[in-house]
């Protein structure tokens, strides 16, 4: 910290919750003011844009009051952890109302509101705030005392403005770098999807419309009869038991699992061979697919497809099912909950080329997918580096290092 810079608490430098009487004294009941619900409070957005306007009499009862220049901070989980924070600006009649889950801080003349905004945007502030939260699960809030007790170094206003300018410029560059990385990733994913679309749209000679059961040795549900789901004796044996979560987490091939079946469980189920394609048919993972990397059992929430190698490549079938996922889901039967079932595949036919062409198509898909994954890895590394740089800049800014 630079010599001579005082340290003050936010409670010494800000008014918490400016009184609504200010608005009532300046405006009539029918005057319009800006309205800012929590969903319009952005993340990494210095100046949120109120999406609505309402008459003062409609909002001055239960909503939170603020004015131009006030700093707004979400106090409830998960909005606080997500960094919902901003400075009120360009409000209708200089006045705004919004969520009752906002803290409103009005800096006194020696504290720049943008300087305060950056102080509150530090990850360490959120991490410490989470530890102080109280309330019922799902409705925990940061207490006002935690916020007001935060200590902030207070250089002169010109120095605060200089620091804000440095952070503005640096974060603008970081945002550009992040946007470019995201664009490159989207382009890579779009290339893969475009290639899938092209292959299944511009079909060559020998393609036929076939049902998936017609190219399988075995096709069906993962077990032979109803399984008591909570019977301990069915679990804990030598046979991998693949659940829908294991399937959706797989990258093409299922290589890990979290549960096993006992001999008793296997007697009520079916051991599918390595290379079997599985598709989740209910729940949050509906339509997700994967290929067994070992012999394993499926629950009744997964349809198994043991593909005949003379008729189809399992990797082609899995790629094809991913491409036609929405079509498959739309053909499922059910009312209260979306689902796929065996009858879905009795009705649906898919474009399937000769087996030699399937192998070539899979090789092309694999190459493009590998490149997409490489770009995803680079993007994640860049994201981590940008996040670390942002954290470092904020630390320097509020320890006298900028």
Characterization of this structure:
- This protein has helices at 10-13, 21-26, 56-59, 79-82, 113-120, 123-132, 144-148, 157-201, 244-249, 263-268, 314-323, 325-330, 342-347, 355-397, and strands at residues 7-9, 14-16, 32-36, 52-55, 64-67, 71-74, 85-87, 95-98, 102-107, 151-153, 208-210, 216-221, 235-241, 253-254, 259-261, 271-272, 277-280, 289-292, 296-297, 302-307, 350-352.
- The chain has three domains: 7-154, Adenine-n6-DNA-methyltransferase TaqI, Chain A, domain 2, CATH 3.90.220; 157-206 and 354-402; 208-352, DNA methylase specificity domains (Adenine-n6-DNA-methyltransferase TaqI, Chain A, domain 2, Alpha-Beta Complex), CATH 3.90.220.20.
- Helix 8 packs antiparallel against helix 14.
- The chain has 14 helices and 21 strands.
- By secondary structure, it is α+β, with helices and mostly antiparallel strands.
